[in-house]
Design brief:
Blueprint lengths: L5 H10 L16 E4 L2 E5 L12 H14 L14 H14 L3 E5 L2 H12 L5 E5 L4 H8 L4 E5 L4 H10 L6 E6 L11 H10 L3 E5 L14 H4 L8 E5 L9 E5 L1 H10 L1 H5 L5 H16 L2 H20 L10 E7 L1 H13 L2 E2 L2 E2 L9 E6 L6 H17 L4
Parallel strand pairs: 2-11, 4-5, 4-6, 6-7, 7-8
Antiparallel strand pairs: 1-2, 3-9, 8-9, 10-13, 12-13
Helix pairs in contact: 2-11, 3-11, 4-5, 6-7, 12-14
The structure holds 4'-deoxy-4'-aminopyridoxal-5'-phosphate (PMP).
4'-deoxy-4'-aminopyridoxal-5'-phosphate binds next to α4.
């Protein structure tokens, strides 16, 4: 049974070059993956440290399935809090240097659940314009006054803080690392302003945890701001290699969210094997820096070569490296031609980014070899020449 109007809208997306069909990969997440029987170099996975295939994580998952079975059977507040969930939360709190942590079904629902719980109509939320969709949706669920400041514009942030002086709470929200440009939030400035105006600092570290700071502890550690950020959100689906999200903050915030955050209250808890996988990932990160070092060396190598070739990599400071192409249709074509050449890198187009800022968003990981990166550079140069970009 057709739903009226959907096909027309889809045709419109096709016309604008914004239509996407899902690619069906025939192998697990890794550096080289198979698509239609062909090996393709993966340059856009969030598997920053290559942990999805780490032997210690696989073993932890297998052992947890043997011990606990495959599912938890309930939401956390009924019978779905197993000792493995408790251990994971304690380890996450230790890893992030906070009093407590609380796991959510995903990073997306963590943002939705936390923002909609701590903000009411007497409050204001002040958000960077390039924050992730889950923050935007979380804010939409509240009745708080909404203010958006231009990307990393501290004057606009200060003005918004002044304008909202009468509110009960002011929550300033920012991504730690911005997911489309790969730049880092100016957290020391944000924290200083929030301290001056008695506001709450909320950082979404989805792309910073496992990436920035010692052992991947995130942007608070990167800037030496432990104890000065009220809410840190993380995901367990990117550098950590599994799935899930979490809040790291005070014990009182955790206790409050256990009573109020709807995705926590009404969604079944993580399968124990997933919690065990995440625990093993935190252990791997805590005891070794070498995967992070490799990822950062690869990042510097790849970004420097791209710039030498003549590509515009925008304002990237992290393993997220955009190659700016321009309008949506051209960006999608570039991504398709690159895939034909054996390199997978998604085209990101309007409305995710501005209409003229379509880009191929590349992510460098610890698992890429120099040979892999050279292959990607070679294929990018070939397609870039065809498009007159280099
Ligand atoms: N925040 C940011 C900045 C993200 O990039 C993402 C993932 N795209 C999320 C939150 C959501 O995380 P998850 O995939 O765990 O839902």
């Amino acid at each position: 049974m057709e739903i009226k109007g959907l096909k027309d809208e889809l045709a419109g997306l096709k016309n604008e070059g914004r239509y996407q069909s899902l690619k069906i990969w025939e192998t697990g997440s890794g550096t080289w993956m198979e698509l239609n029987g062909r090996k393709v170099l993966q340059m856009c996975s969030n598997n920053y440290l290559g942990l999805t295939n780490h032997p210690e994580l696989k073993q932890a998952a297998t052992e947890a399935i043997t011990k606990y079975g495959v599912g938890s059977g309930s939401v956390r507040t009924i019978v779905g809090t197993l000792d493995i969930h408790d251990r994971l939360e304690n380890e996450l709190a230790r890893f992030k240097n906070t009093e407590a942590a609380l796991v959510f079904p995903s990073g997306f629902t963590a943002n939705q659940g936390i923002l909609s719980s701590i903000l009411g109509e007497e409050d204001a939320v002040i958000s960077d314009e390039l924050n992730h969709a889950s923050i935007i949706d979380g804010i939409r669920l509240t009745k708080a006054i909404r203010k958006v400041f231009k990307h990393k514009d501290m004057d606009q942030l200060e003005a918004a803080l002044k304008e909202s002086a009468d509110c009960r709470r002011r929550v300033v929200v920012t991504d730690g690392v911005f997911s489309m440009d790969g730049d880092i939030a100016p957290l020391p400035d944000i924290v200083a302003l929030c301290e001056r105006y008695d506001a709450i600092v909320y950082v979404d570290d989805a792309h910073a945890s496992g990436v920035l700071g010692k052992n991947g502890k995130g942007s608070a550690d990167h800037y030496g701001l432990h104890g000065r950020i009220h809410v840190q959100v993380g995901t367990l689906s990117k550098a950590i290699g599994a799935v899930g999200g979490y809040m790291a903050g005070s014990q009182s915030l955790k206790d409050y969210l256990i009573h109020k955050a709807r995705p926590f209250l009404f969604s079944t808890s993580q399968p124990p094997s997933v919690a065990a996988t995440c625990l093993a990932a935190i252990q791997v990160l805590s005891f070794s820096q070498h995967l992070l070092d490799r990822m950062w060396n690869n990042t510097a190598y790849f970004r420097d070569r791209l710039k030498e070739i003549g590509f515009d990599t925008g304002i990237s400071e992290t393993p997220i490296i955009p190659v700016i192409i321009g309008d949506p249709a051209r960006t999608s074509r570039f991504s398709e031609e690159l895939l034909e050449e054996g390199v997978s890198a998604t085209g990101i187009v309007y409305p995710t980014v501005a209409m003229d800022k379509g880009r191929i968003r590349m992510i460098v990981t610890a698992s890429h070899t120099t040979g892999d990166l050279d292959f990607a550079l070679d294929r990018l140069t070939e397609v870039g020449r065809r498009f007159g970009l280099v």
